[in-house]
Amino acid sequence: MTRLLTTLLVSSFLLLSLFSTSSYAQQNCSGFSFRNNQNFATCNPLPLLNSFLHWSYHPDNHTVDLAYRHGGVSNSDWVAWGLNIDGSRMVGTQCLVALRNSSGQIHAYTSPISGYETQLTQGALSFNVPRIEAEFSNGEYIIFATLVLPSGRTSFNQAWQNGRVSGQTLQRHVTSGDNMRSFGSVDFANGQLGGDGGSSVTSRQRRRHVHGVLNAVSWGVLMPMGAVFARYLKVFKAANPAWFYLHVACQTSAYIVGVAGWGTGLKLGSDSPGIKFTTHRNIGITLFCLGTLQVFALLLRPKPDHKYRLYWNIYHHAIGYTVISLSIVNVFEGFDALNGQKNWKRAYTGIIIALGAIAVLLEAFTWFIVIKRKKSDSNKNPQNGTNGVNAYGNGTHQQA
Ligand SMILES: *[C@@H]1O[C@H](CO)[C@@H](O)[C@H](O)[C@H]1NC(C)=O
Ligand SMILES: *[C@@H]1O[C@H](CO)[C@@H](O)[C@H](O)[C@H]1NC(C)=O
Ligand SMILES: *[C@@H]1O[C@H](CO)[C@@H](O)[C@H](O)[C@H]1NC(C)=O
Where in the cell is it found (predicted)? Predict the structure, then answer.
């Protein structure tokens, strides 16, 4: 049985490495040199569609000078990048567009998107764009622009895209894969502090991964595992003090790591006011409260023979099972919020099914032992026979 539990522990660390290997490459950002020796203070690779955003933010006049690079395209493609001031994704995005026009020149213009059927026709944006130009070379468009940002904000949702130009018309972009996921957010002020201190798409993605690992391993795996130790190890007389310490060790480390994970979640939430995962957040806050209650309850635990101990046990089990059920639900809520991380969801589902199967086996085994013990007790000691089944029940209280 300990081998099974070790396997579980190992697989939870496999889950951890799955999380940590899926970060983005940062190449070709700082190394890139623009024509005319133009320089930008910050650069972030956008996570999809071979794109990069370079910029300098000027707090005094609240403007941004930027260069948007979109590679892996030909000059019969169009590219576009924009900020969505009030929404996210495509509709509402205030776009900068570049293409090769009918006179064969690379042309850049602004285009606000009001609906899915947009032809990306030229129009003024909701904020001022004093400068826009573009160039094309080596399969890469670069749009240079100066934006006068809407007042009072430096953090926005952004979206970027590419598609074919046929004749005079811009064709719709591909409606599957990366082209449907090329949106995120950008903070022009924070990004300046070295490129990953802010809410750039990549650093936020990384922080989401850290948040996912900490919580899936602590609340999602260690907590239920500690309960398995407590419930099933104590039936073995030889494991009598050991189960208690294993249980406390598992639950305490799960709580400590879990609180760290909870903190990263709150930070993620406060850094992305436009993105709300209300259920996930509320369950997370409830879990933190119940988990903390459980830790304090441990300190207030009455002695095993105290008359209130039975009530304490009922309370402890009720809160414990609630925490575990909510934790598992919330880990799945988290995977849904991450969107498209199917491998993590599969890995975690596997771990939970394995834990569940182990618990069912151990439950059956426990009953087998208890019934056997009851029989042999009643043979040895007929007058106390009715207490036999309580040997298991009392055992739970002896050391804790
Ligand atoms: C970096 O850029 C160069 C030229 O722009 C390109 O050939 C190379 O594949 C890029 N490397 C990566 C890792 O993106
Ligand atoms: C904004 O201020 C910066 C210097 O702080 C200056 O270089 C830039 O030209 C200004 N931009 C506009 C559009 O006034
Ligand atoms: C093509 O783009 C260039 C550069 O922006 C512009 O000067 C020219 O007027 C455009 N031609 C047409 C036909 O739109």
Answer: Membrane
If one residue of 97, 100, 103, 110 were mutated to test the ligand 3 pocket, choosing by the most ligand atoms within 8 A of its CB, it would be: 103
- Under 8 Å between Cβ of 146 and 130: yes
- Distance from C-alpha of 52 to C-alpha of 141, rounded to nearest angstrom: 11
Contact 178, 48 (CB under 8 A): yes
User: Which amino acid makes up residue 195?
Assistant: G
Give tens-digit pLDDT for 193-251: 223 333 445 566 678 889 999 999 999 999 999 999 888 888 887 888 888 899 999 99
The annotation status of 173 as a binding-site residue, yes or no, is no
pTM: 0.49
Would you say the CB of residue 380 lies under 6 angstroms from ligand 2?
no
Q: Are strands 106-112 and 93-100 parallel, antiparallel or unpaired?
A: antiparallel
Buried/exposed 36-47: b ≥16 CB within 10 Å, e otherwise: eeeebbbbbbbb
**Calpha distance 122→132 (Å, rounded):** 13
The encoded tokens of residue 286 equal: 């409830």
C-alpha distance from residue 255 to each of 12, 61, 210, 262, 292 (Å): 16, 47, 16, 10, 8
Which two structure tokens, joined as six digits, stand for 354? 């394995």
Instruction: Encode pLDDT of 147-206 as tens digits.
Output: 999 988 888 889 999 999 988 888 989 887 788 888 888 888 877 422 333 344 556 667
Encoding tokens for residue 248?
């406390």
